[in-house]
Design brief:
The structure holds two protein chains of two kinds. By secondary structure, chain A is an all-alpha fold. In chain A, 72% of the residues lie in helices and 2% in strands. Chain B is globular. Classes of the chains: A mainly alpha, B mainly alpha.
Chain lengths: 333, 332
């Protein structure tokens, strides 16, 4: 009996995890369609994607860290801190325009990520300990930067608010950012030496070291990139929701990790793909947007996402045992 | 004869080095506690009053109860992020049982039992489902708190049987609270369990090398399952204390406690990779965190700023020995 369940769950029927996830997402949409045809209208689907774009972006960064056998619990706090700082910059110097805001958000996010990276790389402290610490520090720093005050939409310049809302081809700028970023990360991981080294460092650190890859540097680089993405998301989040305060995105890091895990990223490193992560995030996004339609009370939503996350994680654990080391390409690079 | 002396010598050799390291770690914590004590006493003339000192223990004791069990789990190489969710779920369960007019023992038992079952769910996911514990408990954290929200919504429960409030607010003798006595007893049991029983050795062995432990006859799966149950039960107990102290429940209580509890465990010198740690260290870490939090409270520092201090403390305490090991002069 156990073998049977394991067999079904291991995805023998579904060729790859990405195909399975895609099927699962489509199944969700098909299940919703008869009751709420409007849900499938392109405008609404674009809205769902827009709502999920931030989760996708953060999950892409988190995936890089997970690939190197690390975990970054501080990305949501990084987002909140960077978001607050750029919101304050915009509030007090609205004339500067958008370029300094964007540059600052990426640089500051990267710097906060680098703090994690340096501690993990140079001192070899487990990443969960480091990011647990920086999570508290960055979150407290939001309060110190703002004095506990909110930055509301009327204190933000039109340009600051406008960028994410600007639509091209029926899709918001925020969605485009996620799409472009996903494409960049996919090319980076597939085509660049650093990208391949990230996989190698996480898949088998000892072998990677023998092959001349500095595993610590790879971990540091992953944290740096994840931090830069989180910083950019800081601006995007504050601008999309038109408010910055201390508890912005509080606890969101766990949803991000959930999206990665549902997308097939292994928590023990070396396994994961951009396609999986995007589909995993979309899966959570579709459920989040469909639940209110189906008439599930907002108070039940957390329980339902809990069941979904736990179930997906359980199925994934079954699937990954059958296909360890799947990420290594057969054909020589 | 030679066998005996050999094994005794081996035990002394393997036993002495970690013990020396522990003494150093714990003396570091004691030093930090003394410094903070002096600062607090200097900052406020009211600090050295016995009743003020008793107040220091409030709320930190509830986290420390969970930290004791969590220390065992982390030493065995696992972690439980869902404890905050378990506390909320157990609290809502107690609230519902109490609203039905049940007597005191039943209310308390329902809270502890809820924690026990929730811990069992985590244990099954990790041992039978083979899900890495950090991932599994991230899922159940949302699940447990989600069920609490689903049951209670934005409501509040605040009818409890007479005598319930004493558990979290009562004093046994003078300024010594019941919570504190309970924690002292649990800490003593934990010290004996970890440092003087075969069970404790098995926990450490499982954390140091799960595969070798399994090969040498330790039922590591069963052991880890029961450790998850123990953490869940401790969270249920903490929920009883917290609910009794607050006198009401909402699904949002104990939000973010999981990170504070894990911080307490790591600050206490337990290695996050498992296999290393001591209960006296965790107790000292709990005292230190209680003192720092309370001291900052005396100085009217808002709670969110305290998180900066807690986070810095965690990193510094782990980074300094790591830096000394890596860059220090005694490197061989």
């Amino acid at each position: 009996m156990r073998e049977l369940i394991a067999g079904i769950m291991s995805g023998r029927a579904l060729r790859t995890r990405e195909a399975g996830l895609l099927g699962l997402n489509l199944l969700l949409l098909v299940a919703i369609a008869p009751f709420f045809p409007a849900f499938l209208r392109p405008v609404n689907l674009a809205g769902v994607f827009d709502d999920t774009a931030l989760l996708i972006l953060l999950a892409l960064g988190e995936m890089l860290v997970l690939l190197t056998r690390g975990v970054d619990l501080s990305i949501a706090a990084n987002l909140a801190f960077t978001g607050m700082v750029v919101a304050l910059l915009n509030q007090y110097h609205p004339g500067l325009g958008l370029v300094p805001v964007l540059v600052l958000s990426v640089l500051m996010g990267a710097a906060l990520g680098a703090v994690n990276g340096l501690l993990v790389w140079l001192l070899r402290i487990p990443s969960i300990v480091v990011t647990l610490g920086t999570l508290s520090i960055y979150r407290g720093a939001v309060y110190l930067a703002s004095g506990g005050k909110w930055v509301n939409s009327n204190q933000m310049s039109p340009a600051f608010l406008g960028l994410v809302r600007w639509h091209a081809g029926g899709v918001s700028m925020l969605s485009w950012t996620a799409i472009v970023c996903a494409a960049l990360v996919a090319v980076f991981l597939r085509r660049s030496i650093l990208g391949r080294n990230l996989y190698a460092a996480g898949n088998n650190p000892a072998a990677a070291a023998y092959a001349g890859i500095d595993v610590g540097v790879m971990q540091g680089a992953a944290f740096l990139i994840a931090g830069a993405i989180a910083g950019l998301c800081g601006y995007l989040w504050v601008s999309r929701y038109a408010v910055a305060y201390t508890d912005v995105a509080s606890g969101f890091e766990l949803q991000v990790i959930a999206a990665c895990v549902i997308g097939g990223v292994s928590i023990s490193g070396g396994v994961g793909s951009v396609g999986g992560v995007v589909l995993g995030a979309l899966f959570l996004g579709i459920i989040k947007n469909a639940l209110p339609l189906v008439g599930v009370s907002p108070f039940f939503q957390m329980a339902v996402s809990g069941i979904v996350i736990t179930g997906a994680v359980l199925i994934n654990a079954r699937g990954s045992r059958a296909s360890a080391l799947r990420i290594l390409e057969r054909r020589p690079a | 004869m030679s066998d005996l002396s050999l094994s005794a010598g081996a035990a002394a050799r393997t036993g002495r080095r970690p013990w020396r390291a522990l003494v150093r770690w714990e003396s570091l914590l004691v030093l930090a506690i003394l410094i903070d004590f002096a600062i607090n006493a200097h900052a406020s003339p009211y600090f050295l009053d016995p009743w003020t000192l008793s107040d220091v223990t409030v709320s930190v004791v509830e986290k420390a109860v969970v930290a004791l069990a969590m220390a065992f789990l982390v030493m065995a190489g696992e972690i439980d992020i869902s404890v905050g969710g378990i506390i909320a779920l157990a609290s809502v369960a107690m609230g519902l049982v109490a609203r039905g007019g049940s007597p005191l023992p039943l209310v308390v038992a329902s809270g502890i039992a809820t924690g026990c079952v929730a811990g069992g769910v985590n244990g099954l996911l990790v041992t039978v489902g083979r899900v890495p514990s950090i991932v599994a408990t991230i899922g159940t954290m949302t699940l447990f708190r989600g069920v609490a929200y689903a049951v209670l919504g934005d409501g509040v429960l605040k009818t409890y049987p007479p005598g319930f409030a004493w558990i979290g607010q009562g004093y046994v003798a003078g300024p010594v609270s019941f919570e504190l006595v309970l924690f002292a007893v649990l800490a003593a049991i934990a010290i004996i369990l970890l440092h003087a029983t075969a069970f404790g050795r098995r926990v450490i062995a499982t954390g140091s090398n799960p595969e070798a432990s399994r090969m040498s006859g330790i039922a590591t799966g069963r052991l880890r399952f029961w450790l998850f149950v123990a953490v869940g039960t401790a969270a249920g107990l903490a929920s009883v204390l917290l609910t009794s102290r607050l006198g009401s429940t909402r699904p949002s209580i104990a939000q973010g406690w999981e990170l504070e509890i894990v911080t307490m465990v790591i600050l206490g010198g337990v290695a996050i990779e498992g296999g290393v740690g001591s209960i006296p260290g965790v107790v000292l870490a709990a005292i230190l965190m209680g003192l720092v939090t309370f001291g900052l409270g005396l100085l009217n520092v808002p709670g969110i700023v305290m998180s900066v201090v807690t986070g810095t403390m965690l990193i510094v305490v782990v980074a300094v020995p790591a830096a000394v090991r890596r860059f220090g002069p005694e490197r061989r």
